[in-house]
Every structure is written in structure tokens, then in C-alpha cells.
Amino acid sequence: MQRITNQMINNTMTYNLQRHQTEMDKIQNRLASGKNVNMPRDNPIAASNQMLYRSRLTELDQYISNLNESTIKLNEADTAIQSVLRIFQRIRVLTVQGAHGIYSSFERKEAAATEINQLLEELVNIANTKSSTGRPIFGGHHTGTEEQPNPFVKIYQTLTAGNQGDAMIGVEYRGNVGAIKREVAKGEYMEVNIPGNKLFWASNQILTSNRDSSGYSAVTNQKISIDGKEINISAGDTMDIIIDKINNAGLSVRASKGGRNNIILETTTPHQIWLEDVGSGTILQDLGLINSNFPEPPNNIDPTVTVGGMSLFEMVIQLRDDLVRGDQELVGGRDLGLIDIALDNLLRHIASVGAKQNRVDELIKRTEYDKVNVLEMLSKSEGIDVAETIMNFKWLESVHQYALAVGAKTIKPTLMDFLR
Prior knowledge:
Layout (H helix, E strand, L loop, with lengths): L5 H28 L10 H56 L5 H23 L24 E7 L7 E8 L7 E5 L2 E4 L4 H4 L6 E3 L13 E5 L2 E5 L5 H9 L5 E5 L5 E5 L7 E3 L5 H4 L19 E3 L3 H14 L2 H55 L3 H25 L4 H5 L1
Antiparallel strand pairs: 1-2, 3-4, 5-9, 5-11, 6-7, 6-10, 8-9
């Protein structure tokens, strides 16, 4: 038979009381914090899931922030393009009237030219519109400098349109083709800007090199960049191979060989082609497309290249000058046709922006729905059942009180206690 001593009874009672107090402390912490896991050791699996849920919530919050920013940028672009569209609709009205010969010589040279000049000025101002953050909307990655704050630069010449004084004769794009992208979902990126070399272009551009490249072959492995996309050129590649690589690069540019063994680049959608030899490469210079003295884009096309196509600004300047000269045939034919092409290009970009706006709206709804689901899972994994927890606490409190009462009856003073 095992002998039970008073010390053993005391130790057992003390152990049980301490265990009760430890459990009561845990339950009290759960009630105070509202969480069933305060330390990873409380429930390692639940703690791991909760960290995953919180990481997902942080990720979703960032997506929502990116989507809200995307909405702002797309709305700013849409507002500006709508303004350009209204201006071009007015320009088309003036073109139709000028083609029908209803203007007198004074009206063509004074009134029409004056209004066209004002509309042209406003077009450039819209092209240089800055966002709420002070960044040009249509400048690509161009952020502006003190010397060159705007991506579009006006070129003036005195007395070119009737008696208009200093008149605009050209506009140069000095931004870039950088795409501003935002991650709108896991692995999904969206471009939220339109570079100016795409939006403010009237017709397809054609670049015809006048250099015979029949015997050309690349000396070393190099890279070329067309519209911001790099293409690898291997040592020994001939002009025909380079043309094939350009055509298979997924660009809105088609390359071909001319009758003089020269290379021709033509856009398939209206925009200004962006050419660049990457690093120390010279392939585009060797093919006669890039000016070796000024190889950096934009405005780096070799002076020997025959350039076809024009920007919206060049088209409006051409229309203005044709109206001033009274050339009704050109106004009603060439100029009116170019305006319609430019309008189609503007409408295409408006449709693209609108489609992106709709996509962003759907993504916001989906992301917010995902956030609600994750919060619900986190709440179930992390939160406590208050009623059940209080019941467990009250039960443990009662057991503790019973243990104290029983201990008081069990542990009584003995003769040895008095002898101490």
C-alpha cells in the first residue's frame, strides 16, 4: 500500500490550483484580446494560417490602392482625350466649310487661320497636361526638368499663316515610350498611360532607309529596341534575318526590303516609331535608320531617311496652310481624309481607355469581395466564441473555488505544525 503524506497532499493541491490559475489566465487573455491564439505555441497551425491571411489582406489592400490610382490616371487621360476629340470635331467642321468654298479670301486667311492656330495651341497644351502629381500624362516616363518641363515642344516661325504673326510650324515630342504599369492582381499588370508618340499621331509612319544593305551582316551579338521592345540580333545576321526578327517580335511595326536593298519600317497603327541601338550596338545606324551623330531617341532618325506620315499637330498645320493658300482640292481631299484617320485613332484610344476603366471597376469589385472572404476566414481562425469562452471561464472558476474549499478541509494544522 502506498503511503500518502501531508506533504504529498499539499503538493497535489498546490499543483492543481496553479494549473487552474494558468488556464484561467489563458482564458482571461483570450477574452481581453478577443483572439484564441496570442502566441504561436497556443496553436501553431492556426497561427500559421492567420499569418497567411494577414499577408493576403496586406496584398489585397495594395491592389485596391493600385486600382484606385489606376482609376485616377485613366480618368485624367480620358478627360484629356475627350477634349482633343472635341477640338478635332471643330477642326473637321472648319475643313468641310473650307473645302466647299464658302469662305471669302479674308475669312480663309484671317478668321479660319486664327481659329486653327488657337485650336492648335490648345492641342499642344492638352498634350502637355500634367496629372495631379505634376507628372505629364502623355510623356511616358518623362517627369519634366527645369530646362524641358513638357514632353511636347512648340516650334514657331514668324508670319507663316496670313498675318498671324508668330505661327507654329512644328511640334517635337521629347518624352519617351515608357509604359506606366500597375499590378492590379496577382501576376496581372495594366498600362495606365498612353505615350504621346502614340496618341498624337495622325497616320501610319513609314521610314525608308536610302542605304544599300544587301551585303550587311551583324559583326557581333547586339540588341536593337523598337517602340521600347528589345530584339536580339546575333553575329552574322543579315538584313533579311533582321527583318524577320522585327516582324516576329509582336510589334505594331512591319519591316520589309525595298527595291534598292534598303530596309523599310512601317507602322500598322498610327504612331511615331521609336528606334534605338541598345548599349554599344550600331545595327540601326549601319542600316541607315539612325543618325550616328545623335543616336538617342526621339528625333534621332538619320537625315537621309525618307519619312512618311505625320503627327496630329503636323496635320493641323498643313490644313491651316492649305486654307490660307485657298487650295480647296487639298483641303477637301487630302486634309479631310487625314482628319478622319486621326479621328479614328483618337476613338480607338478612347475605346481602349474605356475598356481599361471597365476592367478596373470589375477588379475593384472582385478584390473587395476577396478581402471580405479573407477577413471572414481570419475572423473564424483568430476570433473566439465569446459565449463559449465565458462559459469555460465560469466553469473553471467554479472548479477552482471547489478545489480551494476542499483543500481548506483537507489540509489542517497538525501537532508538528505547532512544534515548529
